[in-house]
Amino acid sequence: MSDRLPPLTALRAFEAAARHLSFAKAADELNVTPAALSFQIKSLEEHLGAPVFRRLNRAVELTEAGRTLSPGTSEGFARLTTAWRNTQRISDNTTLTVTAGPAFTAKWLAPRLYEFAQAHPEIDLRLTAGLRIMDFDRDEVDLAIRFGYGPDDGLHSTPLAREWVTPVMTPELAQKYDTPAKLANAPLIHDDSINFLHNPCDWPAWFRAIKIAADTSHGPRFSQADHAIDAALAGAGIVLARVTLAHKDILSGRLVAPFKTAISTTAQFRFLCPLGNETRPNIAAFRDWVLKQADPIKTVGRNRQLIAAADIPPPQ
Fold it and tell me: What residues have CB less than 8 Å from 256, skipping those under 6 apart?
């Protein structure tokens, strides 16, 4: 028996018919007549030397040979489709598909989209908010912005800014809680989205860093950082906020970060794309723009006392 593959058109006809279990629906999908599709199936069966479908009155079902062939053809055409789309994206410098976490999208990207559009009217930006582990081929995205440690093996990775957390609140609450000691009795907002960090950057760690005993078990908890910051903007309490997400509100005066003590972490937002793709004009333009947008974070960090999370003593 020859290992030579049958014509691609015959395999394509089989894959569609096996998926639909209908010659008519497969023909409609492939934009051919049922007679033409039936001819391709017959050609494949002659090439194989065995039937792949059992023809019934008004339906078809796979034979044992058809059931064996079906998964491989489905996977093969799916991989071909993905490869083709990825190849198209490489030569397309007019669109850019970006994925980032919901908080980064809400607090960083969305408020600045107009600025990017003004600077790069030739690029059509498409955003997808999500946190799952990236597969650039499967997910059909050009670049990702993710928070964490890495490693980012096989990817081009550029950190956006040094990350640290500090108490953030409205100017009105800052007048009432004007010393670190008073925060022990303040309404605390908890951002649980960074509970995965190896060294905690939470309220208990911050109070240990300033050597003040406090009960931090109270207060609302949020699984998304942007929701925790929005609660602080509404005056609901004081949040231990990541500077990358809160700096725009701090610089505008909507929120204030009155205390010098901050906890730094080696986790950070990184700009990620497949290795080698960082030189593509649209990806390079977005990377340069994002890095420029991160520059104001340095202003917020002036005169801060940054304590590494790893250097904070564990709870007794």
Answer: 168, 169, 170, 171, 174, 250
Q: What is the largest CA-CA distance in the chain?
A: 85
Predicted confidence band of residue 1 (pLDDT cuts 50, 70, 90): low
Dihedral of CA atoms 156, 77, 84, 39 in degrees, nearest 10, equals 170
Nearest 10 degrees: CA dihedral of 273, 277, 283, 288? 80
Q: Is 276 a residue whose pLDDT tops 80?
A: yes
pLDDT of residue 187: 97
Q: Regarding beta strands 238-242 and 188-191, do their DSSP bridges make them parallel or antiparallel, or are they unpaired?
A: parallel
* pLDDT above 70 (res 181): yes
Q: Rounded to whole angstroms, how far apart are CA atoms 265 and 158?
A: 16
Q: Residue type at 293?
A: Q
DSSP letters along 278-307, please?
A: GGSHHHHHHHHHHHHHTTTHHHHTTT-EEE
User: What is the mean pLDDT of the segment spanning 123-147?
Assistant: 84
Any residues with CB less than 8 A from the CB of 248 and at least 6 apart, and which? 107, 108, 111, 296
Q: Which domains does the chain have, with CATH numbers?
A: 8-90 (1.10.10.10), 95-159+269-293 (3.40.190.10), 163-263+297-311 (3.40.190.10)
Burial (CB < 10 A; 0-12, 13-18, 19+), residue 3, is exposed
pLDDT score of 92: 64
**Residues forming a β-bridge with 189:** 239
H-helix or E-strand spanning residue 263: strand 261-265
The average pLDDT across 92-112 equals: 89
3-state secondary structure of 62: strand
Verdict on whether the full-model pTM lies above 0.85: no
301: pLDDT strictly greater than 70: yes
Spatial contact of 30 and 92, defined as CB atoms under 8 Å apart: no
